[in-house]
Write a structure and sequence with these properties.
alpha/beta, 2 domains, three-stranded mixed β-sheet, 10 helices, 16% strand, globular
């Protein structure tokens, strides 16, 4: 069966599922394009407060769909188009989404899986999950922008170990290195996802989006291609002053009641 990325549930907490039966949810070219389309849609959905990215079944994502590689990997132009258009199109849509994104990771999280997880804000992993990017065994390096995203999330030393040793690290080790925020028993992954997403969804959605824009702007202000937009975002950091949810949060605290951010 062909792979797909599908939107399995909308509303305040949306669920994006990576699905490629028989291939541990390996990403095909079509799946990268679908990932982008879904995240562009969710970015525009003002009712969405949190997004969960999960793999179907017992794996998150085992990497790229290698069966497609002979179609484009051996020509520089087509290889560049794959990484810069298809893969980066999907990853940047996740990374640039203002809605908080939670990765629910079970089983294999390899290559493309690590890249997608690196673009998420919070990572919840089953204790049996494994992480790696053993593409050196396939004879090629990680694309530059993808490597930058992974190194920023896992740390440069860990990125070097994953790429140069083709090391595969378990979830406990990735938790110790700061990549995984929540580590839990396999039977409790969904309960932990529910707890985290419910907590996020109960908070001020405008503040969450503003926090993500600020963190992105702080990162991008040294990037010549993104500097102007980043500085513009930082210059407007206090424009939320008259927002209703700002007033509601302060009023609720003073009145010793739970805020209502509906």
């Amino acid at each position: 069966m062909p792979g797909e990325v599908r939107l399995a549930g909308e509303g305040p907490v949306a669920r994006v599922v990576l699905s490629h039966p028989g291939k541990l949810n390996a990403m095909s070219r079509a799946m990268w394009r679908q990932l982008r389309e879904i995240f562009v849609r969710l970015q525009a959905d003002r009712g969405c407060r949190c997004i969960v990215v999960a793999g179907e079944g017992d794996a998150f994502c085992a990497g790229g769909d290698i069966s497609e590689y002979e179609q484009f990997r051996f020509d520089e132009a087509s290889l560049r188009a794959f990484h810069e258009d298809d893969v980066w199109g999907g990853l940047s849509a996740v990374q640039d989404c203002d809605v908080p994104v939670v990765a629910a990771i079970r089983g294999a999280c390899m290559g493309a899986g690590v890249e997608i997880a690196s673009c998420c804000d919070i990572r919840i992993a089953s204790s049996e999950a494994s992480f790696g990017a053993p593409i050196a065994r396939l004879g090629f390096p990680m694309a530059p922008r993808e490597a930058q995203v992974v190194a920023a999330a896992v740390g440069e030393a860990t990125a070097r170990q994953l790429l140069l040793e083709a090391a595969v690290l378990d979830a406990a080790e990735m938790k110790a290195r700061g990549f995984v925020q929540h580590l839990c028993d396999p039977a409790k992954v969904e309960a932990q996802v529910q707890a985290v997403t419910s907590r996020i969804a109960s908070l001020a959605p405008g503040a969450a989006r503003a926090n993500k824009r600020t963190l992105r702007a702080v990162r991008d202000r040294h990037d010549p291609a993104r500097r102007d937009a980043a500085l513009q975002e930082l210059a407007g950091a206090y424009r939320y002053a008259p927002d209703p949810e700002h007033r509601e949060g302060i009023a609720a605290f003073l009145a010793k009641r739970k805020p209502d951010f509906r």
